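Good morning C.,

I know you're traveling, so I'll keep this short. The sequence:
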Amino acid sequence: MAFNNSKKESSKEPERGKSPDWVIRARQGPNSEFFINCGAAWNIEVNGKDAISLKLTAMPIGSDGSFLLLTPKAD
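The C-alpha coordinates, ready to paste straight into the viewer:
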Protein backbone atom coordinates (compact mmCIF):
# COMPACT_ATOMS: atom_id res chain seq x y z
CA MET A 1 0.00 0.00 0.00
CA ALA A 2 1.46 3.34 -1.01
CA PHE A 3 1.04 6.58 0.89
CA ASN A 4 1.09 10.06 -0.53
CA ASN A 5 3.84 11.71 1.51
CA SER A 6 3.43 15.20 0.06
CA LYS A 7 4.15 18.08 2.42
CA LYS A 8 0.54 19.33 2.03
CA GLU A 9 -0.78 16.28 3.83
CA SER A 10 -0.07 15.84 7.53
CA SER A 11 2.43 13.03 7.79
CA LYS A 12 4.70 12.54 10.76
CA GLU A 13 7.82 10.42 10.92
CA PRO A 14 9.12 9.11 14.25
CA GLU A 15 11.04 11.86 16.02
CA ARG A 16 14.77 11.25 16.05
CA GLY A 17 15.88 9.90 19.41
CA LYS A 18 12.29 9.20 20.50
CA SER A 19 11.95 5.94 22.41
CA PRO A 20 9.98 3.32 20.50
CA ASP A 21 6.34 2.71 21.35
CA TRP A 22 6.79 -0.99 20.55
CA VAL A 23 9.55 -3.61 20.54
CA ILE A 24 9.49 -6.16 17.70
CA ARG A 25 10.28 -9.73 18.79
CA ALA A 26 10.39 -13.10 17.00
CA ARG A 27 11.09 -16.70 17.99
CA GLN A 28 14.76 -17.71 17.79
CA GLY A 29 13.80 -20.71 15.69
CA PRO A 30 10.71 -22.48 14.35
CA ASN A 31 9.90 -24.38 17.57
CA SER A 32 11.83 -22.26 20.06
CA GLU A 33 10.25 -20.98 23.27
CA PHE A 34 12.74 -18.09 23.30
CA PHE A 35 12.28 -14.74 21.59
CA ILE A 36 14.83 -12.18 20.38
CA ASN A 37 14.50 -8.46 19.70
CA CYS A 38 14.28 -7.82 15.96
CA GLY A 39 13.58 -4.10 15.87
CA ALA A 40 11.33 -1.31 17.08
CA ALA A 41 8.13 0.48 16.06
CA TRP A 42 6.62 3.91 16.57
CA ASN A 43 3.03 5.16 16.43
CA ILE A 44 2.82 7.85 13.73
CA GLU A 45 0.24 9.74 11.69
CA VAL A 46 0.16 9.47 7.90
CA ASN A 47 -2.29 11.54 5.88
CA GLY A 48 -4.37 12.12 9.00
CA LYS A 49 -4.60 8.40 9.85
CA ASP A 50 -2.89 6.42 12.61
CA ALA A 51 -0.09 4.14 11.45
CA ILE A 52 2.92 2.25 12.79
CA SER A 53 6.45 2.79 11.46
CA LEU A 54 8.64 -0.34 11.73
CA LYS A 55 12.44 -0.56 11.86
CA LEU A 56 13.67 -4.17 11.55
CA THR A 57 17.27 -4.72 12.63
CA ALA A 58 17.47 -8.54 12.54
CA MET A 59 15.71 -11.57 11.11
CA PRO A 60 16.14 -14.93 12.86
CA ILE A 61 17.28 -17.82 10.63
CA GLY A 62 14.40 -20.15 9.92
CA SER A 63 11.83 -17.55 10.93
CA ASP A 64 8.34 -17.94 9.48
CA GLY A 65 8.02 -14.15 9.32
CA SER A 66 5.80 -13.89 12.42
CA PHE A 67 6.57 -11.09 14.84
CA LEU A 68 5.16 -9.76 18.11
CA LEU A 69 4.78 -6.06 18.90
CA LEU A 70 5.21 -5.60 22.63
CA THR A 71 5.40 -2.49 24.76
CA PRO A 72 9.00 -1.83 25.81
CA LYS A 73 10.04 -2.74 29.35
CA ALA A 74 10.36 0.18 31.73
CA ASP A 75 13.98 1.24 32.28
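Safe travels,
E.
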